[in-house]
Specification:
The chain is an all-alpha fold. The chain is about 70% helix and about 0% strand. Helix 6 runs antiparallel to helix 9 and helix 7 crosses helix 8.
């Protein structure tokens, strides 16, 4: 064999290796992550949500470092005539980077940071409970046949039929008193637990119906029939065979439900059902700022901007996740 033949065979072997290296099998998770990384909207949304989360976690440290407190009354920052903040943009200064509240002089930035902790705590906890309840009940209903499926489906329909806002208004005081009688500390703690429970109780049927529909399709697939044929228990079929194939719609639903719950907490705060003053939340800050919109609009736009950034980022991330997890989309 000549040197030319050796070089030719070597070149051919390298070409084959290069071609093989270009065709690499990837899981759906890897494909979805690669799509998300190429999606600029998803990347920006994740960065914004990461910053909001860090702000909520380290809010007290940030306030301590700046030297502000959400409950301190700064009478020297408001005028004696009308109680409006002294200076432009609601009393914005080096000591108070986002200004102060009218009448009280409390630092808006400190209240915004502390409020993010409670707003995100309520929304995150309610989302987790909703996802767990909806997933478990949806899988059981979809995999069951006969009476169990009918009972669970009718229970979902009945729960969805309740006028949510009216029920929350009616149930909140009763449930809060019941929680306090069971040992939950009165005040902010009992109100937070009440909101989490109420939002979860009436939020899970939406996901449960979605999961039930997915399971009705998956239970006829070959891998489920194979698991049943080898004698797998019903529990293994539910949580080892069906559940791993449902994580995509669950993730998408969670990212879409989260902003809805953040907005629901803000709406309930506006109606006076959320955490009571002086404990701050984004919703309570919006409710308090409405009365001063004509004389101090900056006070209104600060919590509104924070709320808008969180809700919009979650919504955009949910849309990007839905596109990234779509198996029918191109995989190039």
């Amino acid at each position: 064999m000549t040197v030319v033949d050796n070089l030719s065979n070597s070149h051919l072997s390298n070409s084959i290796d290069e071609d093989n290296s270009m065709v690499v099998g990837r899981t759906l998770r890897q494909i979805a992550w690669s799509r998300l990384r190429r999606d600029k909207v998803a990347v920006v949304s994740m960065i914004v949500l990461l910053l909001i989360t860090l702000i909520a976690i380290f809010g007290p440290l940030i306030c301590k470092w700046i030297g502000v407190n959400p409950y301190d009354f700064n009478s020297d920052t408001i005028s004696d005539n009308g109680g409006l903040p002294i200076g432009a943009f609601g009393g914005l200064s080096h000591s108070h980077p986002l200004g102060v509240e009218p009448l009280t002089g409390r630092d808006i930035m400190a209240r915004l940071l502390y409020g993010s902790r409670i707003s995100l705590l309520i929304a995150t906890s309610a989302t987790i409970i909703t996802v767990v309840m909806g997933t478990v009940i949806g899988i059981i209903a979809g995999n069951s046949r006969g009476r169990t499926d009918k009972l669970l489906s009718r229970f979902m329909d009945i729960t969805l039929a309740f006028p949510l806002l009216l029920v929350i208004i009616a149930m909140s005081p009763v449930l809060e008193q019941r929680l306090e009688s069971l040992g939950v500390p009165a005040g902010t703690a009992s109100r937070i637990v009440t909101l989490i429970l109420v939002l979860s109780i009436f939020g899970w049927p939406y996901l449960a119906r979605l999961i039930r529909g997915q399971v009705l399709s998956l239970r006829e697939r070959e891998f489920v029939e194979a698991a049943i044929s080898i004698g797998s228990s019903n529990r293994r079929v539910l949580f080892k065979e069906l559940l791993p194939n449902l994580w995509a719609p669950i993730l998408v639903y969670a990212t879409i439900a989260m902003p809805g719950l953040i907005g629901a907490e803000a709406a309930l705060a506006y109606l006076g059902i959320s955490v009571q003053p002086p404990t701050p939340t984004w919703g309570s800050m919006l409710e308090e700022s409405v009365g001063y919109f004509t004389v101090d609009p900056f006070y209104f736009f600060v919590p509104l901007t924070m709320l808008l950034a969180a809700v919009l980022s979650f919504n955009l991330l949910g849309d990007s996740l839905r596109d990234a997890l779509d198996p029918k989309a191109g995989r190039n």
